[in-house]
Amino acid sequence: MAKCKIGITEAGDAGLDLSWVDKLDTVDGAVVITKRMSPEFYDAVLSNKDKIIIHATFTGYGHSVLEPNVPSPHDEFDAIMALERAGFPKERIVIRVDPIIPTPKGIDTAKNVFKTFIDVGFNRFRMSIIDMYPHVRERFKEAGLPLPYGEYGFYPSAEQIGSVDKMLEYVGKYWFDMGDRTLFLDVLRIESCAEPGLKNVYQCGCISDYDLNLLGLAESNPDSFGYQRKNCMCYSGKTELLKHKERCPHGCLYCYWK
Question: Which of 29, 148, 153, 242 could form a disulfide with 215 if both were Cys (CB 3.0 to 4.6 A apart)?
Fold first, then answer.
């Protein structure tokens, strides 16, 4: 049985819906996920930095047809760097490349995101490969975008998974080749959950023993009995902090909310 209660904001965007702030006193720690470092979010996480890990979602598609209301990559990069300069610990900022579209263009976009953040000393990433729900396929078709898995495909093919793995192998080599620079103080962590086909990743939940250690909540044998879907590896003390269950104003075409 989990000893700690860790909040997370998977049901929305923590930079747009700040209702999670009022619930921080009900949890031992929190993982907050956002594509937008709004001024209110900025203030909230700095005020509670000892209790929070940030997942900064950065796909490289901000302000495009795919993510129409997400800030541009340039603006969001600047916001992440400003947060670090203001004193939020870099080791508690996870760059979330989520989702990756496993086409040649999509893989190249993801590779450039990894390299951009490695170049400024970030060492922890999370990633997933896009799921093409029926309503997501319809959005892609309406926007005139190609369907990465064809007319009825939901999951990537073995070949597409292999292409993503090859890109991650390249990223690992890129990190290794840059390793003599003084700002690289730790190993590279590229994490993934519910993506059992990938090899060049740490398979762990969005909340894991690594996070518990970062939050000063280490357990001797923390469980990984995820509750959300098949192959979920999250710590069972995970609890959702957002309750507004609908598509957020970012309007991302791949959103699982209908």
Answer: 29
